Amino acid sequence: MNKTVTFNLNGLVFTIEEDGYEALRIYLEAVQHYLDKLEEGREILVEVEARIAEKFKNALGSERYVLLLSDVEQVKAEMGSPEQFQELESEEEAAEATFEQAPQPEPLQRNLYRSKQNKMLGGVASGLAAHLQVDVVVVRLLFILSVFLFAGYGLIIYLILWVTVPMNEQLLLSQKAGEAAPEKSKRLYRNRDNKVLAGVSSGLAAYLRIDPVIVRVLFIIALFWGGFGLLAYVVLWIATPEAKTLAQKVEMEGEKPNLANLSKAGQRKNDDPNEQGLLNRLLRFPFEVLRVLFEALKSVFKAFFGVARIFIGAFILFVAAVFLFGYGISMGSAFGVYFGAIPAKLPFPIDALSGSVGSDVAILFLAAGFLLIPILFALFAGVRILFNRSIFSRQLLFIGAGTWLVLALALLLMGIRTATFFQEEGNFIHTHELVLAEKGLLLVDRQSDENNMFQPATLRILAHKEKGVRLQEFIESRGKDAEEANVWASMAQYGYSQPTDTSLLLNRKLKLYPGARFRAQEGRFELYVQEGRLIRLSREAAHMLDYYKHSHEMLRSKQDFFTVKVTQDGLECVDCVYEEEGSDL
Amino acid sequence: MNAENTSVQMRKGILEYGILLVIARGEVYTSDLIEELKAARIIVVEGTLYPLLNRLQKVGLLAYTWKESPSGPPRKYYRLTDEGSAFLQSLHATWQELTGSINSILNKTNQTNSHE
Q: What span, in angstroms and rounded, lies between the C-alpha atoms of A3 and A69?
């Protein structure tokens, strides 16, 4: 009587005796290991599996139901050893290379490529590792450390290399490692068969050929050393791949992944756990507890997340959709107005604004992209969390993130450039000697004018000895240098009108001359009136007064027009009536 | 330099020709192709063929389609592309030339042998 295993090969279900299954599994894994070196290895593997399934079906015929080890051996003999799957191709490629009259043995070695086969993100680290003939993990560690320690330089260097270094489809790390160290190719993996958290410690232990407990204790000691242990653990977690296949497990132990070692590893897995001494088990105990706790925590979190993800996903998706909608509308109108497709009465002169922030079309496009990418990312995250489905490929995501960084940088540069336009201060005074009746009450009122982006003007009324009335518009502006700032100041004015010879209407909003640029201009009216003269201020004009104390006091009086006397010390309200409800002290 | 190595090299060159010849007859199921090549003793183990087919397809000499099968999962059928046909034509020419050359040499060898 023999135990049997049921398995599915290319959609066909077979029952096989256990030893046969083990042999088949190891064979297929070894084949996969070799096919993985080819670009479309996965696809070929599917075909190979289909062929094997077909062979099994024929072998069984209609009389037998259970496959035996001998069937597997038969198939192995017919299909050939795993090495033979690769042999022909690699030799032919070598032959092609010699035909093309270039006798250079290894063109790959000299140039830096990105590796498609071993990539995690862009294959930069593994390409670099192959070039320098070191373990990828070392390179990845350096990248991650530099991201943490040197404020993201590692990321920038990575992105630059990603963009500039060409991808090589064939470049394979294990080949290079094999050449560098022909005896054995040891790789750092995470060991998932013997893990507490992520298998970092036991993988490291296998790499260093020491007991995992030692590594774990060291990590825990390092944890109290300013959290360094945790950082190191997380970094290694990210940088190290998990040993998933038998071949990788064999490599983790520092053996060559040939069929003999693979079968050995396959056996070992079955009888390992019980062969531990008492001391070892005692030492392992706290870590066992930790592992069980961690697993429990993980399942609790999973259950919680199962419910929470629906809400979180839906919420993110909703927010993203709202933002996308708003984005569509605002960008549509921004582009529409900019290119004149949509007639709009804007609160600012668009011609004045344009040019003040560098190349304006460029900035419009940059901002559009800069805003869109995070929205799309949120959309992606929402769908990912809610439906567990990726709507963008990994590459696309990284391209998106890279583009976003570039856009952010471009916008930052433009911002800096724009800031230089506003660097220095300057001013200009427009002086108007007003032709007014020398006697009589001068009425000062606010003219109702268009609203725009500028700060409303303030009003300062001052006494002078002369009889005439002088109005000054004091304009301040910004510019690249003081001289330019003065010019921009001179090209903006508030404006006023004199409907009668005893009234003066002031505009509150600044207007730019044609051709003038927005440079954060602002300013005030200064009205010089003969000392002791009475003038009438409308309530709105009183609101414009820039010496706060006077106007504040005056405005407590409720009339529409104030009669004020202009003195050296300021304004004196002649007809203000203050209610004595709130005393000043 | 051993004889086995040389004959392996000879086989390899001819293997592509053989594959293309079989496929040139019309669409063929991968397993049928393998059976025929095995029967003709041009390949020994099947594993070598898969990467080779994949490469021929990648360089554009072959194309394939998946077809439903009455028993089991879909099957991959290979056919020759136009490029593949042209390639095969030039292989034909080379083959004729080679067999011609080798035969003429062999004939001469046989003649001299019989004269002695």
A: 12
Among A105, A7, A37, residue whose Cα is nearest residue A247 = A37
A27 and A163 assigned to the same domain: no
Is A78 part of the contact surface with chain B (CB cutoff 8 Å)?
yes
Residue A192 has pLDDT above 70, yes or no: yes
Confidence band of B88 (pLDDT split at 50, 70, 90): very high
Among A35, A52, A86, the domain-final residue is: A86
Domain that holds residue A343: 311-421
Q: Do the domain assignments include residue A168?
A: yes
* Percent residues over pLDDT 90 in chain A: 6
Interface test with B, best of A88, A91, A170 (most B CBs within 10 A): A88
Considering only CA atoms, which of A430, A502, A505 is closest in space to residue A471? A430
Residues A132 and A259 in one domain: yes
Residue A516 forms part of a structural domain: yes
pLDDT, chain A, mean: 78
Shared domain check, A259 and A140? yes
- Mark out chain B residues that contact chain A at CB-CB < 8 A: 12, 30-31, 34, 44-48, 50-52, 54-55, 58, 72-73, 75-76
Q: Domain count of chain A? A: 4
pLDDT of residue A253: 74
Residue A471 pLDDT? 92
Least trusted range by pLDDT, from A159-168, A310-319, A417-426, B29-38: A159-168
So where are chain B's domains?
3-115
Rg for chain B (alpha carbons), in Å? Answer: 18
Distance CA A255, CA A378 (A): 45
User: Are B48 and A81 within 8 A, CB to CB?
Assistant: no
Note whether A447 and A404 are same-domain residues: no
The reply to whether A128 and A217 lie within a common domain is yes
pLDDT in tens, A365-396: 888 888 888 888 888 888 888 887 777 787 88
Q: Is the ipTM of this complex over 0.90?
A: no
Q: Judge if A112 and A254 occupy the same domain.
A: yes
Mean pLDDT of A396-417: 86
Inform me whether the pLDDT recorded for A474 exceeds 90: yes
A527 falls within a domain? yes
Q: What is the CATH number of domain B3-115?
A: 1.10.10.10
pLDDT of res. A499: 85
The reply to whether residue B51 touches residue A88, judged by beta carbons under 8 angstroms, is yes
A133 Rama class: left (phi>0) / alpha (psi -120 to 50) / beta: left
- What is the helix (H) or strand (E) element at residue A11, kind and residue range? none
Per-residue CA distances from A237 to A144, A201, A210, B26 (Å): 11, 10, 19, 53
Residue A585 lies in a domain: no
Among A421, A441, A457, the domain boundary falls at A421
Q: Which two tokens stand for residue A397?
A: 């995501």
Given a cut of 60, whether residue A583 has pLDDT beyond it is: no
